[in-house]
Amino acid sequence: MNILITGASGMVGEGVLLTALQDPEITRVIVLGRHACGHTHPKLTEILHPDLMDVSPIADQLTGIDSCAFCLGVSSVGKSEAEYTSLTHTLTLGIARVLAQNNSNMRFLYVSGIGTDRSEKGRTMWARVKGRTENDLLKLPIQAYGVRPGFLLPIPGQLHALKYYRYVNWMYPVLRVLASKSVSTLSELAHTMIRVAKHGHSSDVITVTDMRS
Prior knowledge:
The protein is globular, with a radius of gyration of 16 Å. The strands form 2 sheets. It has a 7-stranded parallel beta sheet with strand order 3-2-1-4-5-6-9. Strands 7-8 form a two-stranded parallel ribbon. The protein contains 7 helices and 9 strands. The protein is an alpha/beta fold.
């Protein structure tokens, strides 16, 4: 199968990329981003595009894709709801619509997070926007899933692990016991996404419990 990954220059996307490259059932890994991901591999193809808000100019390169692991995202800190909506909902749906037009019945795995609010009415801004994004992805002619990780333990040797994880990794064994439904390794998340990309899932929400099992 062929899988497209966005956000491969970020921690989650890099973890999914490394896992996909090691999977013998995945024949081609396409990375879409503004910047190079920093990895090379015989089955890796990079598509660099400066404006991810509009991927229509490269639509002809986004064909023959069986699944998309959408790991691209930004923090809501310091952003207005309008700005965060543009960078989260508008960008995601823009890419998903182009993929849906060119790849029928593909699976689209959208990384959101624990607390995502599909009612779109809660007090937390990022959760409403992520919830709206999940809801609108489900309306497209694709198999869409909301992947909701919590605290993640990075994969050893990652180039793009968030710096603050270096200082809080010691907490992981404790959190694994005290908050088991909100803590997983990035390896568990990545393997779960690859599994769903290949075989689907009974629910359109992927929880931390799913990742750990």
